[in-house]
Each structure stands twice: as C-alpha cells, then as structure tokens.
Amino acid sequence: MPDSLSVSSWASSLERDTAPTSPELSTILSFDGDRKKKPTKTKRKQLCACDSCRLRRVKCVREPGESICVECQKKGIACTSIYVSNKLPKTARAGKRIHQARVLYGEQRTDSFGLSDSDTGISMPSESASMLASHLLDVYSSTVHARFPFVDFARLHMEFEGANRNVAEMGDSEALCVVVQAVAARYSDSASIIGEGPRLSSLSGHESISLAQYGLARETFVDLMGSRAMRIIDSKGTMHTPSIENVCALFLLQNLIENAPTPGRRHKARHYSAALIEMLRALAETSAVADSISTAEGDTQARLEREARFVSNGQAFCHVLLHDALQAAYFGRPCQLSSSDISFFCPWLVTTDLAQVRADIANNGRPPTLTCAATIFGSVAMLARAFCEQVSGPVARRDGGLKIEFIRSFYEEADQCFTFFEICQLRWRELYPDFRVAFDTWIRTCNFCLAALVAVTDEMLIRVAANRRASGASESDPVTIELDDLILESAARTFAFSRYAAKALQNNDFDPACTPLGGDVCICLVRFARHVLKTPLAHEGGPSDYTAAERTALATQFLDGLKKLGWQRGEAGEHVEALTAEIEAIDFPHYEEHQLAAPLLSSDTLPDLFSLELNLDANHGEAQEERDSYFPNMPFPNFSSFAYDATSADSHDIYQQTDQVSPDQLPRLSLTIPNLIQFDDNDSTPRVPWPAQGLEDTYRSQDAQETYSRIQDWTSLCSIPGMETIEHHSPIDQLDLDGDYFESSHPYDY
C-alpha cells in the first residue's frame, strides 16, 4: 500500500480492499465490538455542539459539508468536537471509526495497526495485518513465553497458522491470541508500532541510552490493542466460559492492564483477576470429577484430560498465587485467593514446612521439577500472604499497631528464601539444563519481588518511627528504642537485597516489568537506587565492604535498568531524569588534608606480602584479601596497577603495543606495600597513613612525571618521613605512560 495515501482515503476503502483477507484489522478498528449486523432504527438527527459552543452554552450551527461551525468561523478559532456526520457512505464506516478513535485518544495517537496522521511523522505501515500479527507472535515467543510457560504457545501458533493467520477464525483461541499480540506489542520493534528508527538489536549493549522515546511511541498501539482484547473477551463471553485458553488470556490481560500507564489500572485489572480465579476453580471442579472424564467421548474426553493435567501440574496456579499475594502485600489489599483455594490446588503448601523443604532441596540430590518450581513460588507467596495479613492488609491497618516480632520473623524468613534462591541458581543450571532459562527467570522474579517487599517494609518502619516522634513519644521509650534498632537492621537487609536487585538487572533474560509489581516497577527501581545512595559508606559506619565506587555502580545499574525499561514504558523517562539528577548530586566524601590517627601494628605481625613488590602479573586479589584482614575498614589506596617491572612479561606485552621505546628502556616504576607503611628510625612500630584528598587524580594521570609529583605530594600530605615512594632506575621523563595502563576503576580499594 503506498505511503502517500492518506488515512481517510485508505480507511474509506478498507472494507472493499482488505476485509476479505484481513478481517481482524476491521475488528481492531471496531469500537462497538459487535460482529453481527443489527437492525437499524430511524433516529432523530442529533447534532453535537463543538467544544467552544458547549463551553459558552450557545447554539452550535454547522453548515452541511462544513467542518467548522458558524460561531467558530466568526471568532477565527479551531472548531473541535466529536461530531461525525451520519451522511457518510457505508463504505466509509471504518473511516468514521478512525475519526472517533482520533478524537477519543488524541490527534497524535495512531490507530490499532500503526496508522497515523501525517503530522506524527510515522509513515503508513508496510506490513499487512496478518504479517504484523505473525510478527507479534514471534516476539512473544522470544521474549515473554519463558516467563509464563503455562501458555501452550506451540498449540496456539499451530491454530493461528491453521486459520490462515486470520485471528477471527481461531475459535476459542481467538481471545488468547489477541491478548498475546497485545502483550508482545510492548516488546516489538516493528516500524508499524514505534515508527521508523533503529531496531532493538542495534541498540543492545547501549544501556546508557534512554529508550523512553520508543516506549512513548508504542503507548497508543498497545492501548488500542488492549482495548481490542477487552472487547473481544467481553463479546465472546470469555470470562464465563472456563477453558485453558481463557485462563491464560485473562492472566495475560491483567498483566497487560497493570502495566498500562493509566490511573486506576489496578482496580480495572482486579476485575479480570477475579474472573481468572473463578475460572480456575471451575476447571478444578470439573477435573476433580473422574466420572465426567471417563464417560466422555472423543474431543470432549481429550479436552477434559488436558484440563485435568493443566490444573494438576500447578504451573498456572503458582503464577496466579504469587501475583495475588504480592499485589495484596505490596499495595495493601485483601488476597483474592483463599486458604481453601491453596489447600485444593496445592495442599502441600499448607501442610508442609517450607523451610525444611528448602533445606532438603538444597542439600539432597535432584528433586522433581514441579516440586522445585512450586517451592520457589510458594515460599515467596506464602511469606507475602502472611505479610499482608499481619502488616499491610486492610484488617491489619484497621487493628493498628506495628507487630515488631512479626517483622523480625519476616526478615528471618526472607533471609532463608534469599539463601535458598542463591543455591538454586548455582545448582539448577546443571541439574535442569532444559529448564535453565525458566528457573533463572522464576528465581530472579521471586527474589526481586521479595526485595521490593523488604524495601517497602523499611520505608514503613521509618514512617512509623517518624509518626511516633511527631506524636511526642519519648526517645527513652522501650518501643522507640526497639523500633530504632529494627530500623538499623532493616536498612542493612534492604541494602543487601538492593545489591541483589541490581545484579538481577544485569541478566538480559530478566524483565522486571513481568513481575507482579506491574506499572510500579519503575518506582521500585528508583526506591532501590535511593536506598543505595543514602546508605553510609564503610568509613562512614556503613557496610564494611561498601565503597564509593560500588555506590556509584549500583545506582548506575538501576539507572540503566530504568533506561532499558523505557523501551516498553514511556513513563520511565521521567524517572531516568530524576534519578540522574540525584546521582549527579552525590557529594562524594573528601578526606581531610592532614594525617588522621593511624592504627598501630607490631612489626612481627606484618606478613611477607608487605615486603613484595606488586607487579602487573601479581595476584592482587589474594594480597588484597590478606591485607584487608590486617587493616579492616581502612580506605587503603590500591597502587598495584602502577607497578611496572622491566622483567615482567606483562610489562613487555603492554609496552610492545606502544611502539615508543624498547623494553630495556622501560623505567622501573615500583610502588610497594612497604611504601605505604611508615617505620620510624627509632621505633619498630609501623603507622599506616590515611589517604589524602586528591589521590583519585593520580590514577588517571597520563604523564609519568605528573604521576610522580602527585604521589610525592600525597606522601607529604600524609607526613611519611624518610620513605622513597617511587624508585626509578632510568629517567622518568623518558616514558609517557598512556592512561589506559592504569587498570583500577577507583583509587580506593576498601
């Protein structure tokens, strides 16, 4: 179809040219959801006043064939309204609906298959409806299916091909296919959805680039695809017809709605969530009656047996259970699944000690796959349900009072789950190679959700403590003291989980948008980032291994995660800007320009490593570990990358790449651990100087002479008398060291 055709001209010929081959396209553009032609009734013609006339409450007169009313013509203003002439020919019915869509969704919004006004800059789609539908199914298979494996995608794709790629001819699977396409639209890089531009494959590896512009470009398409899915589900009675396909369709639809950047999305999604749970119950009741399966014949018996397997394997129920529990705990609403539901679908979750099961799985052999999967989801789900019941749920909030003992037990259980998941990730990649991606995804999802819940608990404790102080509670009050202790414990635990969340974001198979957090996932990432930014560093009393370099790295990891989320979600761009400003505003600590009190060590306790020069080929990791055992929590400078020895093979290799001078002319730049320890001539007790301000500049100096001068300045600031910091055996100004030789990313190695 030529790109030069206007939207209206294409739409007016839609039924004539495309209806026979692409009936799903006209279905998408339909806003009434009716497929059967209803008898027309003669109605009195009713004109709609334009926005201006309605606002001024004057009569709006529009001459036949005119798009601007008389009043607006007089005033010379734009005439906007939802007026659509009833005299349009029948062949232009689709064009009328496109006009309605533009009015309802905005002039800049595209229709359901990428059609747009000429001023949007998005060209007409080059793909036909069936080609785009096939493309979306492929996208779902490669990006989403591993996260929700209970959807029988192979069967769905076979039915799609069997219907000649005509979604409207897929029968009972039509609703599922439409929802699958709508979900996949958030990941597609089709020009019909996001417009012309680079594809996602060309953007991979560039995490520093914000992709929010693509998320914003796709919102219209995803919105209309979601509307189409809801219309089809309502018109076909999907919520009242129990089947495997309809269970999957409702689960994916609630996920799609929760990820929409619209207010009230969670309340709308709960409507479909409730229908999903009722449908699961109906399927379970049918499969529980053995006679109904054995006495059935043909296709009916095969369908009932398939439904019984679907219910018994528990995959769908585990996902529904986790989703319901996390939504309830995170947002403070009642759980929709009852205890009797859990007892019916997965009774061992109620009767079994999950802590013991986790210990057995971690220590013994190869447990069944379903047992492992159910343990992963069940551990977090049951913990979240308890949290909702005791802390965040409506009943707990009504009763009032913070149950500190439960918070402590909640943290202990969270720690056990975290340890269990870490073991699973290490072992199950080898034990279950066929399910490696699925297990990794499930574990990261559950741990990420658990981390989000821990972070919310930390904020809740801080608010409770602030409210108590505002109400006049004494600092010596036992509850206040206990609450302050719990806040310190909570901060440390939240930091540990934030570290894990940052690590999870590095895995390309993990998508935080597929977690039960829905549209709040961006806020969750910002919450993690802010926590790592406010956590004190090691020398400030924070975690003993927390450095300024790691703080920046963790915050940047969350920032990059937000930038990548922009590919799916346009609103991520606002969070990226806010978090970027917070990271840039960090006031990194500078050390005082005077020698601080240094710890004293006996000379006979110094290990041999302090008499060794650290060359490029030295095992710095072991040296650092042993050194840290003697100097805990000391911000010690790492000079290992400065140690260049002409006899070192590594030095030769690096030097030969420079082509500046021969290896025998390479000066010997040696920085050794003894250089960092000051021995007085009359005293065998060494003193360890504290690094001074400006040391970080030393690491990136590209001139050897400047490096020498700066280190000498540092030595002077630290008051180290009688020590030669740099020993050189040839003129140091003969070599211009390139900055790339300095391998350390940060001057302080804690």
From TrEMBL:
Composition-biased stretches (Polar residues): 19-29
Keywords for the protein's UniProt record, in alphabetical order: Nucleus
Presence of the UniProt keyword Kinase in the record: no
GO biological process, one term: nitrogen catabolite activation of transcription from RNA polymerase II promoter
Lipid metabolism listed as a keyword: no
Chain segments annotated as coiled-coil in the UniProt record: none
InterPro entries: Carb_Metab_Trans_Reg, Zn2-C6_fun-type_DNA-bd_sf, Zn2Cys6_DnaBD
Pfam families xrefs: Zn_clus (PF00172)
Annotated region (Disordered), positions in chain: 1-38
Domain Zn(2)-C6 fungal-type residue range list: 49-81
Compositionally biased intervals (Low complexity): 1-13
GO cellular component: nucleus
UniProt GO MF annotations: DNA-binding transcription factor activity, RNA polymerase II-specific; zinc ion binding
Name of the protein: Zn(2)-C6 fungal-type domain-containing protein
Organism: Mixia osmundae (strain CBS 9802 / IAM 14324 / JCM 22182 / KY 12970)
Organism lineage string: Eukaryota, Fungi, Dikarya, Basidiomycota, Pucciniomycotina
Encoding gene per record: Mo02894
